[in-house]
Amino acid sequence: MLRRLLHTLSLSAVALVFATAAAGGTGPGRKAPPANTALPAISGTAQTGKTMTATTGTWSGQTSGFAFQWLRCDSAGAACASIPGQTASTHLIAASEAGSTLRVAVTALSRNGSALATSAATALITVPASPPPPPPSTQQNGRFGFAAGGNIQNLSAAELARYLDGAKAAHSGWIRIDINWAVVQADGSSSYNWTPFDNVVRATTSRGMKVLAGILYTPGWARPAGTAANTPPSDLSAYGRFASVAVARYAPMGVHAYEVWNEPNIVNFWAPGPDPAPLHTTAQARVHGDQGRRRDGNGRQRRSLALWSIRREDWQRMNPVSFLEQMYANGAAGSFDAVGWHPYNYPWGLSYATWSAWSQMAQTTPSARSLMLARGDGAKQIWATEFGAPTGTTTRDVSEASQAKLVTDSYTQLKSWSWAGPGFFYSYHDNGTNTTDVEQNFGIVRYDWTPKLAYAAYQSAAAAG
Fold it and tell me: How many helices (H) and strands (E) does the chain have?
């Protein structure tokens, strides 16, 4: 009966109710079929992709159930036709129904017969407006980072928050910090003071930025008597054990990228002089990597070794390309996931020079990149984990405009190299106000937190992606 009724249904723009008795009519002894007293109604937004819902309407007499059939009509609500398969009380509006209207025909069923009522037409079905284009990225950019230096853990809670909020506002995706072994285990091999570093890690990750953790400096009990913290440990396995504990601690906090030591190719960090032999730098990379990988789970952490740019080699300073070459010669392949590089080039900028660590990444012969390719490490990246330029008043300093240009030029170049990983600008905040001390003036914001020109350059480059 329902199929015959719907097949013969013809609606005009003003036709609202159709009712017919079941075959046999309402002869003597039979009760009347249901009668519609209020039309079915449709609710929902008349747009493609939206779901409309129909009511049964109101009926007099007894009913045993209802059947639904959705109808597609012209813009005036006429010339309706059944929509195949749409016999539920809800209907998901198809894209092909744009420009039409919809009605729903409801059949009330009972033992005495059935009756049909049809809803009013919906509004014209429209296509939702396209969403507006997204604003410039406000997400943290994984190509961009700040190398914080070794004192960020000493900031007050307010200063740390100001530092990290500013870095986040600049769209930095990374903060490079030190996990200072000499501080954490200052009181002996069984003592641990993680608190200052925990505070930095949690404050960084809570702001959506990642941490690159450098594990370096030897506590007094682990190095020869009379030496400083930049002296390697007497037993490299002690470093490996500490690194393993550190990885296990910070992996649950979201830290999965680590640097093995810092600038071991210069005496400043590896006294009394660099040594890439297996029992030293290569061995520490292996110990740290093998133990740390097991503790971090699934090998998720990245390991790199940061190398410093130098202009003249001597027994206390080794060219980073030479250092990397000797590491490979001593079996370093497989003991790191990326090469950390510190392409400082101030005050000369990015122009080519055989001594420039910026050029030595890929432009010199040999270069870090050519060595990696030759050793089968072409799939690994070079991370520029520290670079920048100071804005003081000495002959080694640059102007604030030149520092801003370095930001723009450096990240433009890094972005163009498929093998380049994140770049970490040193640094976000000046360490002091003495313009004659080079080390106090590397920030892109001044000591009083006011921005230099480089802040806007960094923010613009990171927001652009």
Answer: 11, 18
- Same domain flag for 364 and 408: yes
User: Pairing between strand 65-73 and 302-304?
Assistant: unpaired
- For residue 262 the two structure tokens come to 């810092």
Q: How far is CA 369 from the centre of its chain?
A: 26
Cβ-Cβ contacts under 8 Å for 291 (sequence gap 6 or more): 240, 241, 243, 244, 247
Task: Tell me the pTM.
Answer: 0.69
- pLDDT digit string (tens) for 319-353? 889 989 988 888 888 778 889 999 998 888 898 98
Whether 338 and 390 share a structural domain: yes
Please tell me the total count of domains within the chain: 2
The residues, any chain, with a CB within 8 Å of residue 337's CB and separated by 6 or more, are 301, 302, 303, 304, 380
**Residue 308, C-beta contacts closer than 8 angstroms, at least 6 positions apart:** 263, 265, 266, 268, 269, 320, 342, 344, 357
Which of 66, 85, 118 is the C-terminal boundary of a domain?
A: 118
Distance of CA 423 to the CA centre of its chain: 15
